[in-house]
Design brief:
This protein is mainly α and 93 residues long. The chain contains four helices and two strands, in the order H-H-E-E-H-H.
């Protein structure tokens, strides 16, 4: 892809149409934008605090990392953990 093709891309539409969930969190820690895949997965989260969707045992680390990121500091790396939940076919890859 050359520079003119890249410049012509409509990134908002491309992100909205992603099959993977995508979102933006405000500086206040609330979901302020979600794409269609995120909406289909968890419903309309706009205005909800992101930490409500983090496992309780990881919420403090998530809050700390988020606050550090907002002020431009480096964040800690965290391990990913998954829950199988109740949905058919749920898994962690």
């Amino acid at each position: 892809m050359n520079a003119s093709e890249l410049a012509a891309l409509d990134f908002p539409t491309a992100v909205e149409d992603l099959a993977a969930p995508a979102y933006v969190i405000s500086r206040e820690g609330r979901f302020c934008w979600i794409n269609r895949a995120m909406l289909a997965l968890l419903g309309d989260l706009r205005g909800e605090p992101f930490v409500e969707y983090v496992a309780p045992e990881h919420r403090q680390l998530a809050r700390t990392n988020f606050t550090r990121k907002v002020v431009g500091k480096r964040t800690q790396i965290f391990e990913r953990s998954c829950s199988t939940g109740t949905a058919a076919g749920s898994r962690c890859a």
